[in-house]
Structure formats: structure tokens, C-alpha cells
Specification:
single chain; about 625 residues; alpha/beta; Transcription Regulator spoIIAA; 4 domains; seven-stranded mixed β-sheet
């Protein structure tokens, strides 16, 4: 499939509902909702009963969303009134976009991994460390791990339940990204961007010209076959731990070669840098823009060449599997890298302007509750680390992992519920106000956990316990504005400074003056200057030269319910100029520190925004002369 070929969107299954035949009835119902927005489930049911579906029954939310958008395209419903209906009455699962963007998660295909971690799941139907009954993994498998199909169908699902999809954060998960071939990595990212571009075109045509809404992408047209379970493993989804012939890497390699004529990589899973650049250029003005790209990898995979590749692919955030900062614990768990490698990788990525998202695990083999407390402190006391975001993953025992033998020998045990709760209540308040705890428990299905925590809402349990103790979390997620009402006082612009091994970091944030809710923030990095510049030690000569004597904006984010790019709402936090004001303050701070230029590690979909503010694109970054 060529980079601009959308022919594979043919042979698609239609959406289950076409609003055309019911449009008159839907119009009456929607105007009733606009006139008297329901304030309770009972009021909602009363309106539905007054406007029943033709032939009996009641209209569901997907039908109402499709009808509202069709009426807008025909000029029979005001767009602002339509937005009001979607936001107040019809939007399903509103938390999906209350952090300011619509998140789309995609998984790479099963592939050999350099890691030998004893706690890691070995589901041969999945990329390493993922399980086939996790929701995101199931979506990936249903789309045969095809990056285009995963992205298109996820955008369609979000659109169909009332969410805007013109600003999306893409999260690429699965195994170790940097161990895949460069051809496959370019192919994967190129197809993700192509799907976003073409979905934006289809959606714009539907909303402006009418006709049929975008269809689901038919996975039967995908040329790659399903990854089938190798016959030599019987009915088990997992590799065994007793036979060297049944390791994850060997089983997956045999399976992939069986499908690919003896090769691990298919010839059609390849794109050139020129083709990737093309879909990037198209996304700058797309109706579905990628405003953030997160990729996960290992600390020992980070070097100057890999950082170049990550930036050229458009990545802005790197999820780094640190897991522990205790070398003995890392060795016992066969992690395959040292704490120093994690420090060096974090410093290098920060020098390049990336946002740092660490994974950290409690309850590993060889650790203890007291050691976990000390290890968590190291994350923020060590100037080489200080992550911007953090996932806390207490270790759970998954069947058929090497950790099982240590459990059976009595060398490892899971923390009790009381022990884990107390640990979280100690470490979560230590996360500083510039860090966001994105996850506290990994969402592994309880049926896959042999022993260990099985409560997926354990974060809420810990937060409730802390609240009962009168302890207020300072980390970002606990203070996001989301759908909360603001006080009448003007928001405050706060400035928090902290030192890292390669920079002075300035965390600028707009906060509600009375409630402390965070409305938006900017991460400004002022690289250290001296005989040996940090970027010269960590980065390629080309990237180091581009960042010479430049301060770096690593992130600008405004919270609140995600709005369309050109949409305005008096009650919303977005599109009120907070981002621009944060950048203006970043310029002043950079000038005062003596930097000649301000660079920004912009996502592909935010290039146009920064261009309007006077930034110009170089090779890796956008720049503004101070």
C-alpha cells in the first residue's frame, strides 16, 4: 500500500446505524435535549419516552450522536448547540478526554525482546510483557497488530461516542521498541500518521458535505495473517520456563518465520524516511493532528543514534522501564541493565528535550517495603532522574514466569493488601508537584494473576485513605481541573525550579487561586553550560549543534475537556490563552538566563501552533530567536 493509497478502506463494514431514516424524529429529540438538558437519569428517560424510536424502543447515544452530526452538516442544527448537547448529554466516558487530548494506544506486533526479566509475562500471542486478555491488547490483536487499522478504528470508536479526535496523543506500546528493525519502526509510525490523516479527511468530508460517516476499517483486507498459536504449545497461551526451546523469543521467532517465508520481517513492513516525512507534513494541517507521540523502551537501548531516530519519528515522550535503582535487585530480576544506565539514558533524553515517563516497580525479588521506600526517594533525590511522569507497578506473579520458581521456593512473596496500601500511602505524597502519577496499579486481569494485588481500583483506595488522613497529593493528576468548576479569582502563574544533572528545570503552571487545581503547565529546560555541554556528551553532532545555546520547552499542556482546534467555550479551560501566556513566560525566563534561542520539541500536530507564535522549523526542533 503506497503512502497515499486509501483503497484498503474499501470493503468496509457499515456502521450499525445510519441516522437518515430517523432524522426527523432525532431532530425533535435533540432540540428537546437542547431546550431542557437532563439533570438526572430519570429526566433523561422521560425525554426518551416522549420521543420514542420508530417501530418501538428508544434511541441510544450513538444514534443521537450520529443524528446530531448529520443535522449539523445539513445546516439544521447549530454547531454550538450540537457541541452543547454532546458535552452535556451525549458524550460517553467523558474522562477519556478530560486531560485535554484524545488518547489513542496502539501495540506493535509480537517480536523477540532483549530482556529476560523474571516477572515479565510471556504470552506468545502478544508483544513481550502484554497479555492477550488486556483490553488494549485485545484491540490490537483484533486488528492483527496493523498500525493503520488500530489507529483508524480507535479514532472511529472515540468519534462515535462523542469525543473530538482532532487533537490526539498517540501511545505506542509493546515489547522493546528499539529492538524492532528500523524499517518496521518507520513503517509503524508512518502508517499511524497515515491513518490519522485519512481519517481526518473522511471526517471532514462527512461533516461538511454530508453523506455517510467514516466506516470501520475491515481487518480482512489486511495482508498480514493473524499470529496463530504455535502447535507445539498445545492450548497454553504462555511459554514454559523449563525448556530452552520454549522461551518467548524462540517461540515468537518460529511463529513469525512460519508466516513470513523464513524471515522475521516482511518486505511490505517498511517505509523510507522520505515517506515518513511526507505523512508528517500532511499531519501539520490535518483535521486529526498528532499532538503527542509516546514510545516505550529500555534504558540500555538509548544512545545518540536511537535519540535521533526517536526525534525524526516525531516522538515527544519516552516511557522508560527503569523498574528499580538498586543494582542488586535489577540483577536478581535479570533486568539486563544497571541503575547507572537508567541515569545516563534519562540525562540523554532530557538533553534532547523529551518528556520522561518512568516505569517503577515495587515488590521485586530481593527488595522489601523499606527498600522500596528508599528506592522511590532516589527517583527525585537523584538529579539524573526526576521523571516528569511515573507509573507505579507493584509486582504480581503471572503464571509461567521464572518468578514462579522463586515464589515456590519461598524466596519471594507478594505484599499483603495492608502492606501495599501503607507503602503507597508513604510514597505517593512524595511525588513532587511537577510529576504526574499516570498509573499506580497495572490493569492486569485478575484471572492472569496467580498471587498479588488484584484490585484494579487500588489507586482510589490509596487516595481515599490519604484523604481520610488529611494528606493532600501534590502530583499533577490529583490536581487536574478535569470537569470541576473554577473559583471566581484569577488563576495564578506559579514557577517551580529544580536542578537536574544536565539542566535547571522550570515548571510553570497556571493554578486556580483558591482550589489549587492545575489548569495548564509548561516544562522549560535551561541546559547547563560549561566546558563539556551535556548535549555534546549525549547527542549526535547535528542535534547538539541545533540545540547550541538554546533553552528548551519540553512540554506545554492545557487541561480541561478537550475541544476541537477552532472551537471556543466560555466555560472551558482550553483555548483561553493559557498556553500562549506560558510560552511568553518561558521566553522571559530564557532571556534572563542568557540564552540566544528558545527551542521546542514540538509534536508534528503542534507545529502550526508554534509557527503562529513565531517559531520556525529546523531539522529536529522549532526555534525562536530571543
Amino acid at each position: 500500500m503506497s503512502i497515499n493509497d486509501s483503497s484498503k478502506i474499501g470493503h468496509q463494514q457499515r456502521l450499525k446505524y445510519d441516522p437518515g431514516p430517523d432524522l426527523e424524529h432525532l431532530e425533535q429529540l435533540l432540540h428537546a435535549l437542547i431546550k431542557s438538558p437532563p439533570q438526572s437519569d430519570e429526566e433523561w428517560r422521560k425525554i426518551l419516552r416522549r420521543h420514542p424510536k420508530q417501530g418501538g424502543g428508544f434511541y441510544g447515544k450513538p444514534a443521537l450522536i450520529a443524528g446530531a452530526r448529520r443535522l449539523v452538516s445539513l445546516g439544521r442544527l447549530d454547531p454550538l448547540e450540537c457541541h452543547k448537547v454532546l458535552r452535556q448529554s451525549l458524550r460517553m466516558k467523558p474522562t477519556r478526554t478530560q486531560s485535554g487530548v484524545s488518547t489513542v494506544t496502539v501495540l506493535t506486533k509480537p517480536y523477540p525482546c532483549p530482556g529476560q526479566c523474571i516477572f515479565c509475562p510471556n504470552d506468545v500471542k502478544m508483544p513481550k510483557s502484554y497479555l492477550s486478555d488486556e483490553p488494549g491488547a485485545q484491540r490490537a490483536a483484533n486488528n492483527r497488530f496493523d498500525p493503520f487499522a488500530q489507529t483508524w478504528n480507535r479514532l472511529l470508536a472515540l468519534h462515535n461516542i462523542g469525543h473530538p479526535v482532532d487533537k490526539i496523543e498517540l501511545i505506542v506500546l509493546g515489547g522493546t521498541w528499539s529492538s524492532y528493525t528500523l524499517d518496521y519502526r518507520r513503517f509503524f509510525i508512518g502508517k499511524v500518521f497515515e491513518a490519522a490523516n485519512l481519517f481526518g479527511e473522511a471526517l471532514e468530508a462527512y461533516l461538511t458535505l454530508g453523506g455517510s460517516p467514516p466506516d470501520a476499517y475491515d481487518v480482512e483486507t489486511i495482508s498480514s495473517p493473524k499470529i496463530e498459536l504455535p502447535s507445539d504449545l498445545g492450548v497454553s497461551l504462555f511459554t514454559t520456563t523449563t525448556s530452552p526451546e520454549s522461551t518467548y523469543n524462540r517461540v515468537v521467532s518460529r511463529s513469525l518465520r512460519a508466516h513470513h517465508d523464513g524471515r522475521l520481517n516482511r518486505d511490505d513492513e517498511s517505509l523510507s524516511w522520505g515517506e515518513v516525512d511526507l505523512v508528517h507534513q500532511l499531519n501539520v494541517e490535518s483535521k486529526c493532528r498528532v499532538v503527542g507521540l509516546a514510545i516505550e523502551t529500555r534504558p540500555d537501548e538509548i544512545n545518540a543514534t536511537e535519540i535521533d531516530h526517536l526525534r525524526r519519528l516525531g516522538a515527544t515522550k519516552i516511557q522508560l522501564g527503569v523498574q528499580s535503582l538498586n543494582d542488586q535487585v535489577l540483577q536478581l530480576n535479570k533486568r539486563g541493565h544497571s541503575a547507572d544506565q537508567a541515569r545516563e539514558a534519562a540525562s540523554a533524553l532530557r538533553s534532547a528535550g523529551f518528556k520522561l515517563h518512568f516505569h517503577w516497580m515495587a515488590n521485586l525479588l530481593g527488595s522489601s517495603i523499606e527498600e522500596d521506600k528508599r528506592d522511590f526517594q532516589r527517583l527525585f533525590e537523584d538529579p539524573a532522574l526526576s521523571p516528569d511522569e511515573l507509573k507505579l507497578y507493584p509486582c504480581s506473579l503471572i503464571p509461567n514466569t521464572p518468578l514462579m520458581s522463586h515464589y515456590q521456593a519461598g524466596e519471594w512473596r507478594p505484599y499483603s493488601r495492608e502492606e501495599l496500601l501503607e507503602l503507597l500511602c508513604v510514597i505517593m505524597p512524595q511525588a513532587p508537584l511537577y510529576c504526574r502519577l499516570t498509573r499506580v496499579i497495572r490493569d492486569i486481569p485478575s484471572t492472569d494473576i496467580h498471587v498479588g494485588n488484584q484490585e484494579t481500583n487500588f489507586r482510589e483506595v490509596a487516595e481515599q485513605t490519604l484523604a481520610e488522613r488529611g494528606i493532600q497529593l501534590q502530583e499533577i493528576r490529583a490536581r487536574e481541573v478535569r470537569g470541576q468548576k473554577l473559583s471566581q479569582s484569577p488563576p495564578l502563574l506559579k514557577c517551580t525550579r529544580y536542578q537536574t544533572s544536565v539542566s535547571e528545570e522550570i515548571f510553570l503552571s497556571f493554578e486556580d487561586a483558591k482550589k489549587g487545581l492545575i489548569l495548564g503547565f509548561c516544562r522549560l529546560s535551561l541546559p547547563h553550560r560549561g566546558e563539556e555541554l551535556p548535549q555534546e556528551r549525549h547527542l549526535s553532532p547535528a542535534m547538539s549543534e541545533e540545540l547550541s545555546n538554546a533553552a528548551i520547552i519540553r512540554e506545554v499542556h492545557v487541561y480541561g475537556q478537550s475541544l476541537n482546534i477552532d472551537e471556543d467555550s466560555a466555560s472551558a479551560v482550553q483555548h483561553r490563552g493559557f498556553g500562549k501566556r506560558l510560552i511568553e513566560r518561558a521566553k522571559l525566563e530564557s532571556q534572563a538566563a542568557g540564552y540566544e534561542r528558545l527551542a521546542v520539541i514540538s509534536a508534528i500536530g503542534t507545529r502550526a501552533y508554534y509557527q503562529k507564535l513565531g517559531f520556525t522549523l529546523n531539522r529536529y526542533y522549532q526555534h525562536l530567536t530571543l
